[in-house]
Design brief:
heterodimer; A: 229 residues; alpha/beta; Rossmann fold; 4-stranded antiparallel β-sheet; 6 helices; 30% helix; B: 400 residues; 2 domains; 17 helices
Chain lengths: 229, 400
């Protein structure tokens, strides 16, 4: 089965003062369907940048990323939008819409699907919220939830359209140890059920056991010496 | 995945408000103080625009207020006529000649001039606008004038415009207390025996109606055979413009014939184009529109900028630019409507004050309301569309 994500010779640099600082140096990797891959590395190693490039949230400067057959380098805006819709993105800072209720936050991505109505999308959102254990908070606004609860909502939102890919950026960063563990277990069990690929960026070593594969990034380069399969 | 055809087939309500989730409204009202501030800003901008537009309409309505009370389909004037207060005279005979036209059913003459009017309390005199006519004729449509004009058949009797400036004295109040008020016009005694409403203009701070004979007696140099305006009425169905053109061609060069509508346009045109007043009013209206537009833009731009991280989140999970444009335009429309309604109320209050204290015919007309609503909505939509540019151009990750 071909990989769902292929990264080839990926370079990326940020402007820093008068010059530029390259944060990714020729990254190459493949990610298969059903695989849980954790990208590890210290702060500033480029792991979040790599994840955002895969998610079509940054413009690719050099190299290639193919997501489900779509080349992202120089892709048209509409193609990028189509790719983003295939991905469930879990942000480090949750990024929930504060003005909407928990349920509405989870419903929102379902508006991409023509067959969905307010009632069907609410039912689907409630199903997901039930799975992540916060159905009781469906009508609350995110501002009234704890960090762990918000992350559960973010997971429900990422999974509600049954995406083929889940990208998670430090999903346990703002959570205590026990809650973080619960959250990654949840991501894993939900993803296993749907057979989607998970690429998870973290520097939390307590959750590495859920990974099928580890990729280490150091100073924007893959550290093959620590790679696992 | 959704095909474009299926998406297109979605109901409009789904297109505007997907899944019934009122995100534009929710975002606006989430921070109530900011929403109130935005609405207040737009309210002030709308009130300012409505007031300025209304002021312009009122000022130009005011300058033609005396004309609007005249009964005429065609008006004869001197070729030297500039405006009502500087009308110049032409021979009465031309009015008689005009009556020979088959379409003409009646013609009356008006004598216009400015003469000193003495304040009955202080004795100070200042010029007032005089409109004089033969009381046996009916050159005005104002019912108050029609019901009292017989009084003008008596020599030295005058009717006084209650909307005249206070500088002329409390004539209206005095007249309520006593049946007549004694005063002087051009140092000649007159007895004011009635009131009417006409309104002040740029050229006149007050108005007095006199019978023709009284006027000829007290106005230096006035002659019965030299009139200021000839008011011609036509048979029903006659085309005023055509008759005016025929008369203009047939009558000597010392008189001009204009349709009633053209006469009003000429008076308005004088003040709008040949005096600084028109320019100043128009310029102030345009400035208020520009200031209103900037206020609205600033409010919306700030609102959109403050919500950029949330919009970036939506963009990163697959919402396209069209969604944000629709979202912000809906917010713009909501703000413009919420700002417009109280703005309308505030403007109505200002109009009332203008009518009450400025004696100007300021009215909220449907045309002005529609114009300002269209402008404020247009400004809101434009500001909203401009405010989304940053979001449309940026990568989601650049905004987080």
């Amino acid at each position: 089965m071909p990989p769902i994500i292929t990264v080839r010779d990926l370079h990326h640099a940020f402007t820093e003062g008068a010059g530029t600082k390259e944060v990714l140096h020729g990254i190459g990797a493949e990610f298969a369907r059903g695989e849980i891959c954790i990208i590890m590395g210290p702060s500033g190693s480029g792991k979040t940048t790599l994840l955002k490039l895969i998610g079509g949230q940054r413009t690719i400067q050099r190299g290639s990323i193919v997501v489900d057959g779509q080349e992202l380098a120089e892709a048209r805006q509409r193609d990028l939008v189509a790719v983003r819709r295939k991905i469930g993105f879990i942000f480090q800072a949750h990024h929930l819409i504060e003005s909407l209720t928990v349920c509405q936050n989870v419903q929102l991505p379902l508006s991409f699907d023509a067959g969905e109505t307010g009632a069907t999308s609410r039912a689907r959102a409630m199903e997901l919220l039930d799975r992540v254990g916060i159905a009781d908070h469906a009508n609350k606004h995110p501002g009234h939830l704890s960090g762990g609860q918000k992350q559960r909502v973010a997971i429900a939102r990422a999974l509600v359209r049954r995406p083929e890919i889940i990208l998670a950026d430090e999903p346990t960063a703002s959570l205590d140890g026990a809650t973080g563990r619960e959250v990654v277990n949840l991501i894993r069990s939900l993803a296993r059920e749907s057979g989607c690929a998970i690429v998870l960026v973290t520097h939390d070593t307590r959750i590495l056991d859920i990974a099928d594969r580890l990729i280490h990034l150091v100073d924007g380069r893959m550290d093959d010496s620590k790679a696992t399969n | 995945m959704t095909s474009p055809a299926r998406r297109f087939a979605r109901p409009l309500s789904e297109w505007i408000c997907p899944l019934g989730i009122p995100l534009p409204w929710s975002q606006l009202v989430m921070e109530k103080k900011r929403f109130a501030a935005a609405v207040a800003g737009i309210t002030v901008a709308v009130a300012m625009m409505l007031f300025q537009v209304g002021l312009k309409s009122a000022l130009f309505a005011q300058v033609v207020a005396p004309i609007k009370q005249m009964r005429a389909d065609v008006v004869l004037i001197s070729p030297q006529f500039e405006y009502l207060g500087s009308s110049h005279d032409f021979p009465l005979e031309r009015l008689f000649s005009a009556q020979s036209d088959q379409a003409v059913v009646g013609a009356t003459s008006l004598y216009l001039g400015s003469l000193p009017f003495k304040n009955p309390l202080t004795g100070r005199a200042r010029d007032i606008f005089i409109l004089a006519f033969d009381p046996a004729e009916q050159p005005f449509t104002n019912p108050e004038i029609l019901s009292q004009q017989d009084k003008l058949k008596i020599e030295s009797v005058a009717l006084y415009d209650r909307l005249s400036r206070a500088d002329y004295g409390p004539v209206a109040d005095l007249l309520v207390k006593q049946n007549a008020v004694d005063s002087e016009v051009a140092d000649r005694h007159v007895q004011i025996e009635g009131l009417f409403s006409m309104g002040v203009t740029f050229a006149a701070d007050g108005n007095v109606l006199l019978g023709r004979d009284t006027y000829l007696k007290i106005s230096p140099g006035a002659r019965k055979d030299q009139i200021s305006l000839g008011l011609v009425t036509l048979k029903p169905g006659a085309d005023a413009a055509t008759v005016a053109a025929n008369l203009d061609k047939r009558l000597p060069d010392d008189v001009m014939a204009l349709s009633y509508a053209d006469f009003i346009n000429k008076e308005e045109g004088y003040w709008a184009e040949r005096t600084p007043i028109g320019f100043v009013i128009t310029a102030s209206m345009l400035v208020s529109l520009a200031v209103g537009a900037v206020i609205v833009y600033q409010i919306l731009y700030t609102d959109v900028t403050d919500h950029l991280p949330e919009y970036a989140t939506l963009k990163s999970i697959g919402f396209g630019d069209g969604y944000f444009v629709r979202l912000v335009l809906q917010q713009s429309a909501i703000l413009s409507i919420f700002g417009f309604v109280p703005g309308l109320g505030l403007a109505a209050g200002l109009y009332w004050a203008t009518r009450t204290y400025g004696h100007m015919p300021a009215e909220l007309t449907c045309g002005n309301v529609a114009l300002v609503f269209g402008l404020s909505l247009g400004m809101c939509l434009l500001a909203g569309a401009l405010a989304t540019r940053k979001l449309r151009r940026a990568n989601p990750a650049d905004i987080f």
